Each structure stands twice: as structure tokens, then as C-alpha cells.
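testing teh design pipeline on a random one, pls ignore if ur not involved
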């Protein structure tokens, strides 16, 4: 019904009919809505004034299985029979400017087909140039959906102190002004990532500052702020300069690649691309980050006096904690304030660079300093605990052993043999 107004505006006759009063099927409401929206958008877009668009609902039986059948037909321009299968391919565009889908991005029908098949259904098309098109979707009734159907549902994200902090899903910021491409990217990522969307570089930059995503995928050509400028601004800002950026482009000439790399781009993704290629690029970039996190953690565990951090942000954060080392009340909020960031920005920045939450990071700095005191100072273990901000010597000893594999007294004995 939401398309009735659009049809009236174009002077198109719009009919909805059902052969049954009630049809019950096991489907995902949001995905079914997307399927119907994509089919109706195309039908109305390419049907001329005084034409007709019809939605027909029915149940049919085939091979001992009942199906919900959804048919969208129109009297639009149509397309050649030779394109009957290829119109469902990603990024496909008709060779003829006269035919239905030549002006589209080539993603709406590909996404529709993916959603239909995910729910165990089928979609086919019939058309002739100048005679309109008919798309028929069949979804099984009642049937038990495949487990992969539920795997595509977005997972719940944990939060910390009411702020936006995701622990169980890495976050991808997609910056793309084409709604079809944005929808396809979101669909590709939903089973593994939390996805945020922005329609141009300016909005993307604001979102990146607020939420500190784990990775960014950005189109190059966009209104208000293009992908090159957006990428450069992210890499110049301390809060976001660690975030890997993939630039998305239809043409990646060597000149474009060099220009993008100079602006800080970590990788390029050239249209057309498929889900496997996209996920492989993300995995590769996130693996590099995970290796850096392991390197940082090993530095603190293996060295009595670890070298200063190479990252300027980490160096500042470590110094802030050391300045308040003996203050047990120095909290996550205090560290964030001293860095001129929000708690969630500090958390996500530290998590990305070290793999640690803010609280663990602060405790790690305290314990490393305690390790130095055990070797260099003639203090009791209780005194060292209090000097490094622990209210309880017993908890200090447990935390020390959990991190370094030895109790404070055993470590001191091994480091200072008689």
C-alpha cells in the first residue's frame, strides 16, 4: 500500500489481489518487505503513465510442497528474453539503453534473489521488450528455514555503561551514496559485523568520530565530501587514524590507487565485487590489526622494562596512567577525560590498538610498574601494591600472577637471586 501514492503520482493503475483470505508462511518480515519493495520500485519506475502494476498473492503446490507465491507484473518497457537470467547477477546492466534495468546499479535484483534463496525460495522472471515484465517469488509453506537463514540476523551488541561500545561484533562503517550498493554491502556483512551506514563522506566522518568503527568501506565519488578527502581526514585525526580504510571504486587506475594510498587508503575494492572478495579483504586488514595487538601484549609480558610504545596515542595514554599510578580511584572516565575523549572513544581506540578494554589497559600499566618496583625498590609486596594503585595486596598478587605467570614474591626471587 505504501507504493499506491507513487503509482497515482505517475498515473499508473496499481492493483493488489489475493486468491485467499489468509496465507501463513514462515518468513522474515524485514526480508520479505525488502523483496517486495525492490520488485515494486522497479515495476513503477519503468512503467509509463497510464500503465498498470499488479501484485498477486496465492498459494500453489509443486512436488508435494506448498508455496506462498508472490507475483509482481507490470506493463513497462520489459527486457529481452536473453537477459532473463543475467538480470539477477550483481552489477549487471542491460546492454541496451532501451531496456528496463539499464539505468540501475545492478544490485537490487541480485539482493532480492539472495534474500529469496536464503528463505529457501525461488524467483524467476518473464518479459518481452515493450510488453512488460512479471517476477514470480515462491517461498515454502510451512517448511523449516535453513539454519543459515537465522545466521544472517544481526547479533546483539553488548554495551558498557550505556554508551555505544560493541564487544562481540566488530563494526564496519559503510560510506556509500548509492542505496543499492549500500544495501548489498550491508547484506554481505550482517552475519559477521555490525554495520553502520552513511550517505556521504561528511556524515561518515561524523559517525567515525562518534563511534570509532573497526574498519571503513567508502565509495570514492560522493556528494559533499568524496572518498579521498574523507579518507585523508580520518588518517589525520588521532581518534580515527588507526582505522583501516577500503576505498570502493568502479575504476581503479594506477593514478587513482597512488593518490588514494597517499591519502591513507589501506586497500581498494573494484566494482564489480562479490561477498567472498569483500570478506577476504576485511579479514586480511583485521588480521594485521590483531597481529599488532599480540605484539603489544607480548611487549608487556616478556620485558621487565618494555620499550616506549611506537604509537603516539598509546604513549600518551600510558603516561597519563603513570602520572596517577598510586591513585586507586583513577578510572576509565578519568583516563578518557585526560585524553580529551569520551569513554566509548577511548575504549574503542584502546581495544583496536591493544586488544584491551580501558580497565584492563590501566591495570596492565599498574602491574608493569609493579614489576619494575619488585626489582628496583626495597619495598614490601604490600607497599608496592598500594604504590601502584591496588587497594588489596591479595588482589594485587592474584592479578600479577594471572598476567605474568608468577606470584610477586616468586618473580622477585628469580629476578634478584641472593
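output:
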Amino acid at each position: 500500500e505504501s507504493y499506491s501514492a507513487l503509482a497515482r503520482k505517475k498515473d499508473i493503475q496499481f492493483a493488489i489481489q489475493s486468491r485467499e483470505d489468509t496465507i501463513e508462511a514462515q518468513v522474515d518480515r524485514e526480508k520479505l518487505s525488502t523483496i517486495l519493495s525492490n520488485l515494486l520500485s522497479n515495476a513503477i519506475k519503468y512503467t509509463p503513465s497510464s500503465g498498470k502494476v499488479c501484485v498477486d498473492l496465492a498459494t500453489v503446490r509443486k512436488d508435494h510442497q506448498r508455496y506462498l507465491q508472490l507475483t509482481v507484473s507490470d506493463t513497462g518497457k520489459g527486457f529481452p528474453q536473453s537477459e532473463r537470467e543475467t538480470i539477477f547477477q550483481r552489477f549487471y546492466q542491460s546492454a541496451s539503453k532501451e531496456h528496463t534495468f539499464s539505468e540501475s546499479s545492478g544490485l537490487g535484483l541480485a539482493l532480492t534473489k539472495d534474500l529469496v534463496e536464503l528463505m529457501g525460495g525461488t524467483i524467476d522472471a518473464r518479459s518481452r521488450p515493450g510488453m512488460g515484465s512479471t517476477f514470480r517469488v515462491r517461498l515454502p509453506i510451512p517448511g523449516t528455514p535453513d539454519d543459515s537463514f537465522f545466521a544472517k540476523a544481526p547479533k546483539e551488541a553488548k554495551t558498557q555503561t550505556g554508551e555505544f561500545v560493541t564487544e562481540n561484533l566488530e563494526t564496519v562503517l559503510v560510506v556509500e551514496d548509492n542505496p543499492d550498493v549500500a544495501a548489498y554491502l550491508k547484506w554481505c556483512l550482517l552475519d559477521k559485523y555490525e554495520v553502520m551506514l552513511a550517505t556521504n563522506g561528511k556524515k561518515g566522518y561524523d559517525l567515525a568520530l562518534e563511534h570509532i568503527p573497526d574498519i571503513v568501506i567508502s565509495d570514492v565519488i560522493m556528494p559533499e565530501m568524496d572518498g579521498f578527502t574523507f579518507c585523508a581526514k580520518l588518517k589525520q585525526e588521532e581518534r580515527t587514524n588507526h582505522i583501516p580504510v577500503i576505498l570502493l571504486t568502479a575504476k581503479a587506475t594506477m593514478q587513482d590507487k597512488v593518490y588514494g594510498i597517499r591519502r591513507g587508503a589501506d586497500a581498494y575494492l573494484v566494482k564489480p565485487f562479490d561477498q567472498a572478495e569483500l570478506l577476504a579483504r576485511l579479514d586480511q586488514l583485521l588480521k594485521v590489526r590483531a597481529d599488532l595487538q599480540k605484539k603489544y601484549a607480548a611487549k608487556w609480558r616478556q620485558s621487565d622494562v618494555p620499550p616506549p610504545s611506537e604509537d603516539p596515542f598509546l604513549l600518551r595514554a600510558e603516561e597519563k596512567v603513570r602520572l596517577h599510578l598510586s591513585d586507586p580511584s583513577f578510572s576509565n572516565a578519568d583516563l578518557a577525560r585526560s585524553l580529551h575523549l569520551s569513554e566509548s572513544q577511548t575504549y574503542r581506540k584502546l581495544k583496536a590498538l591493544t586488544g584491551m578494554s580501558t580497565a584492563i589497559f590501566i591495570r596492565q600499566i599498574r602491574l608493569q610498574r609493579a614489576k619494575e618496583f619488585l626489582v628496583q625498590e626495597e619495598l614490601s609486596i604490600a607497599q608496592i601494591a598500594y604504590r601502584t594503585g591496588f587497594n588489596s595486596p591479595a588482589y594485587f598478587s592474584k592479578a600479577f600472577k594471572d598476567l605474568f605467570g608468577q606470584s610477586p614474591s616468586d618473580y622477585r626471587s628469580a629476578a634478584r637471586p641472593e
